[in-house]
Amino acid sequence: MSLDEPGPVQLPDAKRKRGQGVGAVYETLRHEILNLTLEPGSPVDEVKLAERFGISRTPVREAMVKLAGEGLVVTLPNRFTIVAPIDFPNLSQFFDALSLMYRVTTRLAAASRTQDDLEAIRELQRGYTLAVEARDVPAMIEVNRNFHVRIAQAGRNRYYTDLFSRLLDEGRRLLRLYYSSHNDALPRVYLQEHEDMIAAIDRQDIEAADRIAQAHAQQIVRQIQTYITEDRRLNADISL
Amino acid sequence: MSLDEPGPVQLPDAKRKRGQGVGAVYETLRHEILNLTLEPGSPVDEVKLAERFGISRTPVREAMVKLAGEGLVVTLPNRFTIVAPIDFPNLSQFFDALSLMYRVTTRLAAASRTQDDLEAIRELQRGYTLAVEARDVPAMIEVNRNFHVRIAQAGRNRYYTDLFSRLLDEGRRLLRLYYSSHNDALPRVYLQEHEDMIAAIDRQDIEAADRIAQAHAQQIVRQIQTYITEDRRLNADISL
DNA sequence: TGTATATTCATTGTCGACAATTGATGTTGC
DNA sequence: GCAACATCAATTGTCGACAATGAATATACA
């Protein structure tokens, strides 16, 4: 399965300003990890990255420490650094936390949203609709993530927004992994659920927002679990 | 108010192994920040830290990036790094998240605890009792934190444990700030609530665990808010 | 031939030095 | 006396090089 466009070729001669090196490496690596352009578990070579971005190893290492802090890479001391593997055995933990954050952030959004929040959320929902119509899976995944993060921001709790963003990012890798094979089918449901969610937030109906968020989370969790089960079955067939 | 023993004097000659430098700086800084040995908002000097630990600036910077990732320091690009200020205006966000995590982790602990978990939790509760009897405020704060983290671990959800730990750490600074002035009075209540919490977790009574955790959280939140209000009143008197 | 030990090699962690940036200081002109 | 501008000093961000580490390979020995 072809996962994505090849990484952007850096121009090593373009003089970068002082803090730009680390930021560029960090952002690029981050995207490549979340897009599965970099395979989970694959090694990350400091030297090659330094060459690729035309900088020395020091800022590259700094970016790696940041990525490690967010759990996107894992550093084996004195050995090497790998792209964080997907933790399949503990996926239930992930689903539990994801569901709770769906609920809490949507509740708070219903309580605290401003008109600006609503507009921004609706704009993202329009983008999601377009991505669905265009059957652009990567765009759908990305916009969907931004949609829910924006709702969380409307709830105005930094702690929830941070954790939720990280969970949604982790979810991005899972969706990437299973979405492309089962190409369509589900997005319609999500679209309607999103609309209901927006409506509940609009009329500040906290309990409704909670219910819809919970249902939405369950939907997504079940979807991914189905994918994984099918995946397992496939592997089981081979090993028999 | 004398906040703590002076920072441990490092021996610059003792040959450290390869990864020990960053770890030492990170751990030491972390403790000094959480103990309020380093004042929130005060600058953190890379060079002085390097001299203090007898290492170069590179590993010191690496530790700073890690601390910044956890929000314990704030880096002003091209300027300097400061100990993260306490975010008083957004304390309600903090209290909200803290309360939710108290509830969720205690619920999960009641659901999944093993005998080993229970023993470890009881052991920490014994330590807390001793600290209360000895009126050792710093120990109380630290053991209390570990007590709740251990309960969270019994719940076996990495995402909750991580967030909760960070929230409790942030709370440590708040408690340090206000506890030492109002020296006793409250710990008795907490002690009994802890006992009730353990009992609920022991008999796997999820709803009871939830209720007690919620009450416990409310207790603590109200306590801190009272401190802050008194603090404000004090300042208001001065400015009149 | 198989196992234990020494050597090589690639890669990381650390260092000291340099350059860019920014606030502070000093200077000039009005 | 004050504002605009230039210079200075302090500190950061980056670099290239070196040393420590562990894995892979080679060697010695039974």
From TrEMBL, chains A, B:
SMART domains: FCD (SM00895), HTH_GNTR (SM00345). Gene3D superfamilies: GntR ligand-binding domain-like, Winged helix-like DNA-binding domain superfamily/Winged helix DNA-binding domain. It comes from the Bacteria. The keyword rRNA processing does not apply. Keywords: DNA-binding, Transcription, Transcription regulation. PROSITE patterns: HTH_GNTR (PS50949). CDD domains: WHTH_GntR. It holds the Pfam family FCD. Residues 19-86 form the HTH gntR-type domain. The keyword DNA-binding applies. This is FCD domain-containing protein. It comes from Hoeflea alexandrii.
